Amino acid sequence: MKVWSISTSIRDPLRVPDFLRALAQVEGRVWDHKSQDDFYIYQIALRVRKKISRAKLSTESIRLLDSSEDDLSYEQARMIFDENQYVGDGMRGRNDIALLVDLGLADKTGSVRITSLGKALLNHEIEMKEIMLNFALKFQVPQAEHSKYKSELGYAIRPFSGTLALINKVNSNWAKLGNEPKGLSWDEFCLFVPTLINYSQIDSQAQFIVNLRNKVKAERSPKAKDEIFKSSVQSFLEPLLERSEKATDKKVLNNLFDYGDNAFRYFQQSMFLSLRGGGRYVDVSPLAEAQVQMLLDEEEFKPLNFESFSVYADYLQDLNSFIPPWSTPDKRNEIEKSLRRILVEKGIKPSKVIKIQTQAALPSIFREDAEIAQLRKTIVDSNVQDLALAATTVEFLEECISEFGLLGKRQDIPMAEETRIKQPTQLEYVTFKTFLSINDLLQIKPNYPVDDEGNPTFTAGGNMPDLEIFYRDFNAICEVTMMTNKTQWMMESQPVQRHLADFSLKYSEKTALGIFIAPSVHRDTKNNFHFAFHYGGDSFESLRVIPFDFASWSGTVKNIAEARKNGKKISQENFYDYLISMLPSTISRETTDEWWERIANPSNILEFIK
Hints:
By secondary structure, the protein is of the alpha+beta class. The protein contains 25 helices and ten strands. It has four domains: 13-126, no CATH class; 157-302, no CATH class; 329-383, no CATH class; 393-608, Restriction Endonuclease.
């Protein structure tokens, strides 16, 4: 089918640096089947490849996957690769490098090379969000020397700006009919965004969507609505089919939804798109409307002419090769006025102290300077403050308990349908809500990235705690994970202690505690925290981390909710006393099992509720 797509080999954009780190192990080698297989093997060795089939693995290989070692040796990873009988034609390595090349991070012409942009990412000299915005603004079809994206086949668009133009046109046409603009429904996004292969089709494709909505609306029964939608889509897809494809094939439609989902994941990183209508619609973010209009006015959806792929690759890899239309002082002032107008409409005072601090925006090479970033962050922070008011109710806390129960069963929470976030991100969000609701904290900082509505998009970065919580008399960090096996100890216990040490130094005026929450806590994780309390780490004589599994944490929160029904609460002073009481005993040298037995009893919180 004639569509454009972003490689689906790496679903989570934030995992790109890990795959690049694995590719760096074969840098300088000819990109043949051997180096392609080795790229995949190094993904196993560096624990980048998370999902590895175990059905054919030996006991030793399973032990290695569950071991406490930071990395596996090449030989150990090779053994796992061989036992799984992966086809040795380098296919997996070829699939995974495709996205890294598309992003301008790697080159495989002749031999494998990590580009200067890729090295800057690996050396933490540039953030992943900059890489993603650079890609979004420059990615185009056709591409010279590409087997599919050829101009003679009709490809002529920069998909990101083309997507923005399509949404904008649909909204405009829909509003002219007296309707409220709402962006593209999820089905419309997945069906009509990847199939928009030429900028000349933007207007006609937008009108087709509006006409289709009206046709569906005109039908009375759900069955008739469904039939007219399906038949119209099939007619639309017919001219795009290739070879033996049929518009009625489930595989054709599944692929389109796969491409649409992946495109949204990557384009969402730009902060120009947001979900609305309970996650059922994709629209231009209100905070990005001024910049989006500038992209459309400059017709940035039109592709450039590159005589070879190497020239296009150089363009991708050079951060200075694209000058955004908002770079001039006049355009920059337009953006500032637009954001300040939103501040006024919402009645937001930038100097106001707020309870929830989000990871909303930082100065960006492409998007904004520090002042614009702060204005946008002020608006986003304001968008989530209503949550702080709702959090004082019993129902809010009971909802958190229910959502921990769902995640414990590996089921999605209701919000996942609205935001399309995965379970690790859901867990961070539910935990944030729980701490927001428990008692009278001064401020809480969830470190997961958020969209312009304040909704989480991915998990917090690996160099910071998941949550930072500030009380009047003490501070705390909280780390959460869905891991339960021995990998939990290897991947989580040391970072928790490191984050607690760094946090304690940064906010040294108050005592700091660490809280760890997982579906179940592995025995090695418990032992590690027990050891760290008694013997410390870094420059600290003691690192105080209290681990909870879902059952003990939910039970504790349930007791707080029951007390709230009866007009009782747990103050920050009493909550601190409770956490201190859950640390290993300094009077008697209790074992790790004895310590855990105390933590696992949710009724311990009761004596601290007044």
